[in-house]
Structures are given as structure tokens and as C-alpha cells.
Specification:
The protein is α+β, with helices and mostly antiparallel strands. It has two domains: about 160 residues, Roll (Nuclear Transport Factor 2, Chain: A), CATH 3.10.450; about 180 residues, no CATH class. Helix content is about 50%, strand content about 15%. A five-stranded antiparallel sheet has the order 1-2-3-4-5. Helix 1 packs antiparallel against helix 2, helix 9 crosses helix 11 and helix 9 crosses helix 12. The longest helix is centred in the N-terminal third of the chain and has 34 residues. About 30% of the residues are buried.
């Protein structure tokens, strides 16, 4: 176990140590400065995460606070369970800035997941709350994917009481009877409600069995090319029942869930005012590849929640990777092609961005 303590005292000593390096040799100077620079960089990144956390807490954006959490912890706590539980468990939010007193780095075994993490930051900080109270707290953060994620101070014994609060609270009635569609509908209705935004469901889910079937976006000419398709004009998701069954039989249920969650993601983009154009620089909107990869990301956000709810297991995720292999663009597809969806690698990466980083990773937020 190694410990590096960064505090006000340390920051005071750095210039003094730098002078000593000049006086007593270039090796000492180089080593001290390099270490100080590395520590300062980590400290800056950690402070940035703490600012984002405190701002989310102050604004009541518990979805953002959830997305800033360690991904391994999020796999055990459904999004809505956290949103319902956290306001009752957390101290009052900071009224303004927080003051970091110290940061200590060490290797730990995280009790909630019983997994080892290296170089975990234990941060002691204080602030004045919105209620006027002086509050001192300690939080641990682990660096994952270049971002310092906070680790809730929980054990497995705490989970049942939190998971029991996973019910949706939004005043919204879904018209769908299929469990998958119900869950997708309520999941997004809840998020939009929490953000103070208006939500509406896709108009329908239609299985297409006949070539030439008319849609708001024109006739469907080739059933073999239709896995599923969202039409922005009529807000209906069309799918091929035979392809659905083939995917479920050959790959698995979670692969089909990804397909539908992706198309539902297009509906979220549509009602949020996002659209595709050939030349975004001239006409606004997004390139097709940006639009499609964001929908992959949004499918990852939803499927992470199904894993946290116990519908699927993390061990089912390789099925998703098989699905992205099938859904990648053909070699030679130009990135700015109006039909581009992204390569298999890009689509897989976008899905996992949603899985690990949540809504913030997909550039979808309360401000949008």
C-alpha cells in the first residue's frame, strides 16, 4: 500500500523543495518536480469531479450525480433507486464552493463490490450547506477511464433497502403491454419528468411482414434489411418479426433489447429536437454517424439499468458485442454518408460509454 498526501502544507513545500533541487542537484530537482506535477494534475482532476458532484447535489440533478458514480457500483443500484434514496440519505447540499482539506492515495478493496482498486483518492472536504450548517465529509474516488468516480460508502448489506426504492414515481401511464416497451417507456418518462421536460411515447411498435408497407417515412422496400427502424415523421418504431426471432435465437434476448433501446433512443433524440442533416455546418443538426452512435450510447444507458434491476447479468454483455459486429457499417463507408451508423468498434464503444458513463456520456443532460 502506498500513500501520497496532498494538503495545504504540501502545496506550501513544493516551491521550497524545488529550490533544494536547484541547490543540491538536477536529479533531485527533476524527481521532485515530476512527482509534484503528477500529484497536482491528479488533484486538479479530483477537484473537478468534486465540483461536478457538489453542483449536481446543489441543483438536485441526481441523475448526473448517479452518472458520476463508480460504474461497478451503478451496476448494483438501479438509477431510480438512487434518485429516490439519495435525497433522504445525503447531507444538505453545498451552498457554494467546497474546501478540500486533504487527499490521500492508497490501494483498497472496495466493500460494496469486493474488488481491488489501486490509487484510490480519499478526500476530506468541508462546506457550508444551503441550510447554513458547517459540514465535513470524506469521500473516496477511483480513476476510471480518465475520470475520477465517487465510490458510495456502502456494503452489500445496504443494497436491499436501496434497491427496494427502484419504483418509478412519475405520474405517467404507458400504453404498452409488452414488458420491454413498458420499461423503456417508464424509464425515459421518469428522466424527462425529473428534468422538467415534456415526454411522449413512441406512437406504436409495428411488426412489418409485407414489402411495400407504408410508413410516414415512405414504403419499406426490403424486409431483409429491416432489423428495426424509427420513423421521425410518424414516431413509430417498425421492426421485422422474423429478424427479431432470429436475433433472439442466434444471439440472445439482450441483443434484441439493444436493438429496440437504440430505436427508442432515436425517439428521445427526436422529441429533444435533435435531427440529421447532410451538412450540419450549413443546416444544423448532426451527421448520421453522430446520431446513430448517440442512439447506441442511449441504449447502453437503458441496458445498464436493466442489469442493475436484475433483468440481465453483466455476463450477458458479450451478446451485445455480437450485435454490434452485425450492425457495423460495411468497409469503405464514408463517415459523412447519410446512412452511416459507425463501424463495429465505434458502435461497441458508444454502447459501453452509455453503460459506464450514463446520460452525461451520451451528451444528454438536464440543460438540453
Amino acid at each position: 500500500m502506498h500513500h501520497i498526501r496532498i494538503s495545504r502544507l504540501f502545496r506550501t513545500l513544493v516551491p521550497f523543495l524545488f529550490v533544494l533541487g536547484i541547490l543540491f542537484g538536477p536529479t533531485l530537482s527533476a524527481n521532485v518536480v515530476a512527482t509534484a506535477a503528477a500529484n497536482a494534475t491528479e488533484e486538479t482532476q479530483i477537484n473537478r469531479s468534486l465540483v461536478s458532484m457538489s453542483q449536481a447535489q446543489r441543483e438536485g440533478d441526481y441523475h448526473l450525480l448517479y452518472d458520476l458514480m463508480l460504474p461497478q457500483a451503478r451496476m448494483l443500484i438501479p438509477r431510480q433507486a438512487f434518485v429516490n434514496w439519495w435525497p433522504t440519505a445525503a447531507p444538505s447540499a453545498p451552498a457554494d464552493v467546497i474546501t478540500v482539506d486533504s487527499i490521500t492515495f492508497s490501494d483498497i478493496t472496495y466493500p460494496l463490490t469486493d474488488t481491488d482498486f489501486g490509487n484510490v483518492a480519499t478526500v476530506e472536504y468541508e462546506y457550508t450547506s444551503v441550510d447554513g450548517d458547517d459540514i465535513s465529509l470524506t469521500v473516496q474516488l477511483a480513476e476510471i477511464g480518465g475520470v475520477w468516480r465517487w465510490m458510495p460508502d456502502l456494503t452489500p448489506d445496504d443494497l436491499p433497502a436501496i434497491q427496494a426504492q427502484a419504483g418509478f414515481t412519475v405520474n405517467y401511464t404507458t400504453a404498452y403491454s409488452t414488458p420491454l416497451y413498458q420499461e423503456l417507456d417508464m424509464f425515459w418518462a421518469q428522466i424527462f419528468s425529473d428534468w422538467g421536460m415534456e415526454y411522449r411515447s413512441p406512437v406504436d411498435m409495428i411488426g412489418v411482414k409485407r414489402v411495400g408497407t407504408q410508413t410516414g417515412c415512405g414504403p419499406i422496400d426490403d424486409l431483409d434489411e429491416v432489423f428495426a427502424h424509427y420513423c421521425t415523421a410518424d414516431e413509430i418504431i417498425y421492426f421485422n418479426p422474423e429478424m427479431k426471432q432470429l436475433i433472439i435465437d442466434r444471439i440472445g434476448d439482450i441483443a434484441w433489447q439493444m436493438v429496440i433501446a437504440h430505436e427508442w433512443g432515436h425517439h428521445i433524440q427526436n422529441i429533444s429536437g435533435m435531427y440529421v442533416t447532410k451538412s450540419p455546418e450549413l443546416f444544423g443538426g448532426n451527421y448520421s454517424i453522430e446520431h446513430e452512435l448517440q442512439a447506441d450510447c442511449l441504449s447502453g444507458v437503458f441496458l445498464q439499468d436493466t442489469i442493475a434491476r436484475g433483468t440481465f447479468l453483466e455476463s450477458d454483455l458479450p451478446e451485445v458485442e455480437q450485435m454490434t459486429e452485425l450492425g457495423g457499417d460495411a468497409a469503405g463507408t464514408n463517415w459523412d454518408d447519410i446512412t452511416a451508423h459507425g463501424s463495429s468498434d465505434q458502435r461497441r464503444q458508444s454502447f459501453y460509454t452509455g453503460l459506464d458513463d450514463g446520460l452525461r456520456g451520451c451528451n444528454l443532460s438536464k440543460a438540453d
